[in-house]
């Protein structure tokens, strides 16, 4: 079936002697061990498994148009040939010649059946990311195989990778393109390709990652990916004999701060944007404050580092949605007492489905939605005030994503765990706030403006009040819907949708299903399991009032009117 296997592979050494550097050959600067792990026995039997889906049968005469799960990620992985590259790594590790023989058969079959622009060729064959991921695998194979079809394919890949019209500057795909071009340029001895790759990496790093480490792709999961790939790139640059640009090392280091703050106390990444909820990033050393505001659009706060029982929250603002971001501005998440409480719908897959579209919409996040108004996509949100103290933090954010001013104020108490959120729109408009609870929490009761959920014997309470009267806001709609707990994973979860109001206060009290609440003299007092917490109805910090120009219009003060005699009923 494979002429290549019967001829060229017959010249291979019996044991690996390391990458060759025969006359005219440049160094192999990409290490085969960097390819993802595979089940070698399955691949040798003609089967492959990608992205957590069951193994699919390819056979020996591969149909490269195969897409058994109608899954974009699966099809990309098939044509990226990283699974072929791992066979090269297994040959290097074990010396088993059959692994290299099979790797050569797979690569030769791909090149023969997938001419660029050929009839019937899968669109994934020459997709820009597939090209970027495949080229290093072909480079690693070329360390042991010399044949015209392979060197010709490498040159074709490099021409595509160096084409500015196809380059994804400032994007994780662009970084993969640069890594691939560097690998091919070094192997074919083309310094202009190597130098172009290094120059583009430096320029893209400054565009993609700000000085605080925020990745502009708006998903912390991609910060992990870019951090890892930058490490690969810096290693390759050193192997090539070039100097690593200082900006690569600096921005890679800054990413560690961003990723660390985006990691919850339980070790999982907060599922913001296209970040699966079950992602566990590597731990990075941190000597950072427990609360950090990132100018790129994130607030991350925790009670303490390296404490699984720490409370934790996130808040989103900043530039409008781009790349892997969601329409999550003004959204919050909350984790306390070792449990997820407020979560987002998360990331499910890259498939073009109604569910995928919904997970990126405002309604899939913990946000206020203006009633009867059309949402304006990609609207920026401003953080107009922040007051950070050791036991309490306050933030105010505003935007006009629905054509009217939408303001959210957030107060978080640490020690005595509590989150209070004040949502406001101008008179004549109304909003409804959405609260997505973790799948581990089940409904206990919902009445009189109080919603109680449970995880076993543990309770959490959501309280809602009208403002400025501070009367209980009744009429919540309780929904059971589906959120994503990981790639291609879903779970049922409770969502609370408030009744319409121009202004409402929402209070989340972890650890109790019966918190006492009182209101007097403009102060709300909530008795949490760790003690009472008092705050003004406006949530303004006592020693850092929001400048008047940044505050929404106020209604007359009626703080002398109590909303309870003793207990929230």
TrEMBL record:
Residues 537-562 are annotated as: Disordered. InterPro entries: Chondroitin_lyas, Hepar_II_III_C, Hepar_II_III_N. Residues 319-490 form the Heparinase II/III-like C-terminal domain. This is Heparin-sulfate lyase N-terminal domain-containing protein. Residues 54-275 form the Heparin-sulfate lyase N-terminal domain. It holds the Pfam family Hepar_II_III_N. It comes from Streptosporangium fragile. It is found in: Periplasm. PANTHER family: HEPARIN-SULFATE LYASE (PTHR39210:SF1). Transmembrane segments: none annotated. Its main location: periplasm. Keywords: Lyase, Periplasm, Signal.
């Amino acid at each position: 079936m494979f002429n290549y296997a019967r001829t060229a592979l017959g010249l291979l050494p019996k044991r690996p002697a390391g990458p060759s550097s025969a006359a005219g050959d440049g160094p192999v600067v990409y290490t085969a061990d960097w390819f993802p792990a595979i089940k070698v026995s399955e691949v040798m039997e003609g089967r492959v498994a990608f992205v957590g889906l069951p193994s699919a049968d390819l056979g020996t005469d591969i149909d490269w148009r195969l897409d058994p799960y109608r899954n974009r990620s699966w099809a990309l992985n098939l044509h990226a040939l990283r699974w072929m590259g791992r066979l090269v790594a297994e040959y290097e590790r074990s010396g088993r010649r059959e692994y290299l023989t099979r790797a050569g058969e797979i690569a030769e079959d791909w090149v023969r059946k997938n001419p660029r622009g050929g009839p019937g060729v899968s669109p994934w064959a020459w997709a820009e990311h597939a090209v970027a991921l495949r080229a290093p695998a072909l480079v690693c194979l070329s360390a042991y195989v010399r044949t015209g079809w392979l060197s010709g394919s490498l040159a074709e890949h490099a021409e595509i990778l160096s084409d500015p019209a196809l380059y994804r500057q400032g994007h994780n795909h662009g970084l993969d393109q640069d890594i691939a071009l560097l690998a091919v340029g070094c192997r074919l001895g083309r310094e202009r390709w190597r130098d172009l790759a290094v120059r583009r990496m430096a320029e893209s790093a400054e565009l993609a990652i700000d000085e605080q480490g925020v990745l502009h792709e708006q998903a912390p999961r991609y910060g992990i990916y870019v951090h890892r790939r930058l490490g690969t790139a810096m290693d390759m640059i050193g192997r090539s004999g070039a100097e690593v640009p200082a900006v690569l090392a600096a921005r890679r280091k800054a990413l560690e701060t961003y990723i660390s703050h985006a990691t919850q106390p339980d070790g999982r990444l907060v599922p913001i944007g296209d970040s699966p909820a079950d992602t566990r990033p590597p731990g990075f050393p941190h000597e950072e404050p427990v609360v950090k505001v990132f100018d790129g659009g994130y607030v991350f706060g925790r009670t303490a580092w390296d404490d699984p029982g720490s409370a934790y929250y996130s808040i989103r603002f900043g530039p409008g949605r781009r790349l892997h971001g969601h329409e999550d501005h003004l959204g919050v998440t909350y984790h306390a007492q070792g449990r997820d409480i407020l979560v987002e719908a998360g990331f499910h897959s890259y498939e073009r489905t109604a569910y995928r579209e919904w997970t990126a919409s405002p309604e899939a996040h913990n946000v206020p939605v203006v009633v009867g108004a059309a949402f304006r996509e990609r609207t920026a949100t401003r953080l107009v005030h922040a007051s950070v103290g050791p036991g309490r933090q306050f933030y105010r954010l505003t935007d006009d994503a629905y054509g009217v001013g939408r303001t959210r104020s957030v107060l978080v108490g640490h020690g005595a765990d509590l989150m209070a959120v004040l949502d406001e729109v101008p008179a004549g408009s109304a909003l409804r706030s959405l609260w997505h609870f973790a799948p581990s929490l089940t409904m206990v009761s919902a009445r009189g403006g109080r919603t109680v959920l449970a995880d076993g014997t543990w309770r959490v309470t959501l309280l809602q009040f009208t403002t400025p009267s501070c009367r209980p806001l009744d009429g919540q709609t309780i929904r059971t819907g589906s959120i994503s707990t990981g790639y291609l994973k879903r779970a049922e979860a409770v969502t609370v949708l408030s009744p319409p109001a121009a202004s409402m206060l929402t209070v989340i009290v972890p650890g109790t299903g019966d918190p006492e609440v009182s209101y007097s003299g403009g102060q709300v007092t909530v008795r949490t399991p760790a003690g009472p917490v008092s705050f003004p109805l406006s949530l303004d910090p006592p020693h850092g009032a929001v400048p008047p120009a940044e505050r929404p219009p106020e209604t007359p003060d009626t703080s002398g009117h109590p909303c309870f005699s003793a207990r929230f009923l």
